[in-house]
Amino acid sequence: MSRFYKLFRKRRCSVIGMVHVDSLPGTPSYNGNTKQIISNAIKEAIIYSECNIDGVLVENMHDIPYVRPKDLTPEITTMMTRICTEIRKILPENIPCGIQILAGCNKEAIAVAKAANFQFIRAEGFVFSHIADEGFTDACAGTLLRYRKQIDADDILIFADIKKKHSSHAITSDVSLSEAVKAAKFFLADGIILTGAATGDPASVSEFTEIKQTTEMPVLIGSGITKDNIKDYLTSDAIIVGSHFKVGGTWENKVDKEKVKNFMEKLKILQNTH
User: Fold this and answer.
1) What is the pTM of this model?
2) 185/103 Cα distance (integer angstroms)
3) Domain count, the chain
């Protein structure tokens, strides 16, 4: 059985809620209060737990503008480790936790996951290079999986973005979506993530259908899911929800408990009728 289904239930669309960590030390929008950053992240994780969410994904999304791994400084990795450790302490063990460090800082994410006892990472640039708004992103599967082996972290799953959002894929325009998925499977990804063109944009339903027909890999939807369009993605293995769970539906805002609760109730109804 796929390693994915040891974390998330098979034949069910699981929900992974985003914790968008406030701007960290050294980034342009940092407010000078690390205790508040940690506290806010914990509060949002607790909301997800109380709403019976299936998983949590922690991300440094407020660290705009993002930098590539060569420019990532130690305080980001250490703060993410601290935050993730605190979140893991308060969440039940049956809620899998993941981390993404922008932009494309996948080795650092693996290291944090190892230290904080997290179960998965979201990886950018796993297969095929592309140009993102923060610069060139090179394929990293070979070096990332070797690093995972070196630090004895093989139990940490890697969910890989395919043709990811906020990026130009002109240099791989002759590589189809299905070919990218096959490459990710061949390079041992534990699941693939399909997104829209930008944060909050839904993934193409036709592309999602194409992928589901051509692979047995776990398929996650990584952007644009709402209470109104969730019916189009019920056959996905998991959905990653950020913007829709926030006040006003905007990713910069805090998690709205009522929105999470209403979404989970709507999804339960849909799953029981399909």
Assistant:
1) 0.95
2) 22
3) 1
**Residue 241 CB neighbour total at 10 angstroms:** 28
Domain that residue 104 falls in = 4-272
Give pLDDT tens digits for 188-244: 999 999 988 766 678 999 999 999 988 999 999 999 999 999 999 999 999 999 999
Cβ–Cβ < 8 Å for 114, 46: no
How many alpha carbons lie under 13 Å from residue 196 in its C-beta half-sphere? 15
Structure tokens at 268: 């339960």
* Structure-token match 């109804």, residue found: 269
The C-alpha atoms of residue 218 and residue 162 are separated, in whole angstroms, by 13
3-class DSSP string for 162-196: CCCCCEECHHHCCCCHHHHHHHHHHCCCCEEEECC
Q: What are the two backbone dihedrals, phi and then psi, of residue 164, each rounded to the nearest 5 degrees?
A: -65, 160
161: domain CATH number is 3.20.20.70
